[in-house]
Structures are given as C-alpha cells and as structure tokens.
Amino acid sequence: MTAAPHHDIAPYADPPIRPDIAAYDDSLPTGRTTLGDYLRGFWLPRRLPGWAEGTQRYRTWTVTTLLASPLALRPIEDLGVLEIERYFAQRAITPWESTGELPKAGSLKGLLDTMRASLNDAKRYGFIRDNPCTGVELPRAESTQAQIWTPEQVQAFLASTRRSRYVTLWRLLFATGLRRGEALGLQWADIDLASRRIAVRRNLQADSREGNVRYGPTKSRRSTRTITIDTGTAEALERWRRMRQTEHAAWLADLEKRLAGYRTPGARLPELPQALPEDSPVFANADGTPMLPSTVSDTFRRQVAKSGLPQMRLHDARHTHITHLLRSGEPIQNVSARAGHGSSFTTLTTYAHVIAGDDERTAARAAGLFGD
To answer: Of 193, 200, 194, 139, which Cα lies nearest the Cα of 173?
Structure first.
C-alpha cells in the first residue's frame, strides 16, 4: 500500500473489526457470497497479518465503513458499476456523524481502493468473472492539495523557529522526506553522524493525544531503508544530541538526589547510565519521553501560522522534499528509494504533475535537435 494521505476519520456504523478478533471463515466464498460476508469473513482476516499496524487500522476502517453500506448486502457477482457509483455519490454528500464534515477525496478513494483490491482477489480466485470497480469513477469531492514551499520559504521557516525545541526535527523532515512516525521512531543507535547516514527501522505510533506511544514496523518493506543527510543537518543533529546529553545529566543528578533520600544507611546507589542511552529516542521531551505525534503536528501548525508563510501540513514537508528532488532532476528511482515508496511507479503516479511541470525545460532540451 502506498503512503496514505491524511484522511478524515468517519464514525463506525458497526463496532470496528479489530485485527485481534477478526475471525477467518474456513469455508470458501462463492459469487453468491455478499460483499459484507466476503470482506468480514474471508478477505480482511486473510490480508491483515501481512500489513503494517497503521495499514491494518486504516484498512479495517475502510472495511467497517463498507459493511455499513447497502453494498454489503449484495452478492459480489451481482455488484455493478452503476450501483457502486451511486453509493459513492451518496457517500460524498453525506457528512460523517462524528464530525459533521463531508468526506474528503482521500477518504472516498481509500474506500474504493479497498473494495477494488478485495474484488481483484475474488476475481483471481475465480469467485467472480470481472471486477466492477475497474470502471468506477468517483464523484468530485473536496481535496486538500499539498502545499509545496520554495527553498527560500523553507529557510525562512527554519530561521523563524531557530529557538524552538523542534527546529532540528523540522530541518530533518525537510532534509530527508521522512514520515512523521519514521522521524519520531529514530533512536540514537540509528544515526551515524560521522558518515551522515540514518537507518529508518521503525515507526512511532500513538492512538491518542494523551499518549499510548509504541514502536511498530515501518509502513512497508521498502520503507525500511538507510539514507544520507547533508552536512548541515548532521551538524544540527550533533548540537541537538549535546543538548539532550545535558538534559540527561540534569535528569540523572535529580534522580540520584531523590534516590539518596530513600537510601538505607550504608547501602550503595545502583549504577545509572551516565551517557545518553543508544536506544533513547532522538526526538524526546526534556524528561526523555518520546515526543507525541499529535503534539508535533499541532506545534508545526502553530509555528507555520506564526511565521506568516503559506499554511502547510506537517506531511507537506515530505512532499516539499520529494518535489524539490524531482524538479532538480534527481532520477526517479533514487527519489523513490529515499522516500521509501513501494516502487518507482508509486512515485511516478503520485508526483507526475511535478515532472510534467518541467515540460518547458524539456522543450528547450529538445530544441537541441535543430541547432537553433
């Protein structure tokens, strides 16, 4: 699955199908199996184990939403293009009960992608002859376009946030195109500042703004990668590490002072790590706990507003990085590997408009044929 955009989250019409309770139905579906039974009893349980945790949650949401639709009652071999388009047309103008907002284009696309993928499997197994989703056209819906900053705007933002605790994180995101969870999942053992290389091995996730932080796998196999950073970003990370070491030493001194108050006379204090542990999060709060993803996004939004620059989401830092590389002429396979996309095709289809935007330069190069 490709990198998912920021979707609006719909309420669950039925209790959500959690990965740990989705039951696999041993009986094989047929063309007369309803879409709901096929998704719930066969397709979702079969596919869940192969997906990263974030993909599991998102795909479960799309399946649960489809289960609440009239399409769920239809045999899969009877589904047609017209009724699927009718459902999406109605879904596009029906607000989510939880927010009162209309579905965005990304949410509609996610629902159709899940339905298409599931019926592709049904076709491959011989349950149905054709996949009706192939011919479905989604209705126009509100879509949030990525905001791409120029190099000058990126530099202005970093200058305006130079005294912020988050400025090193902002620079790293713009310098690497890392996803938010990938950057927050970094540990000091993942960074070799001497060679200026970063190993992306995990993804930090949190279910709420209150915490419940945990580490999970990267989004896909190709998302686990090693990338090189520029000298300036490496120097910024080195300064950040020294600052974190100072904070760690202060925390350690306070802890030893408090432990001494509870010490039995003559007992020795336990040995405590004097250096910043290699497995500690790179981007941590003063007490060493990981930064919450929601807090990072909220802070970015506030600091962008304060800077006076065009509004952008945190994820648009990734889009800015990738767009800048493509417009600079970097080979698409290099950009795809750096971004951790599933394939170069994903990069090409997602950023085709960026490449097409350089057609004037292409025309100038083509003019070399004539020697004008």
So the answer is: 200
Q: Would you identify the CATH topology of the domain 151-305? A: hpI Integrase; Chain A (1.10.443)
Facing residues of 191 across strands? 198
What is the pTM for the complete model shown?
Answer: 0.66
Q: Give ∠ CA 337-342-348 in degrees, rounded to 5.
A: 75
**Angle at CA of residue 246, ends 242 and 249, nearest 5°:** 135
Domain coordinates in residue numbering, the chain = 35-135, 151-305
- Angle subtended by helix axes 293-307 and 151-160, to nearest 10: 100
Token code pair at residue 195: 């060679």
pLDDT in tens, 149-208: 999 999 999 999 999 999 999 999 999 999 999 999 999 999 999 999 999 999 998 755
Annotate 109-165 with three-state secondary structure. HHHHHHHHHHHHHHHHCCCCCCCHHHHCCCCCCCCCCCCCCCHHHHHHHHHHCCCCC
CATH of domain 35-135: 1.10.150.130
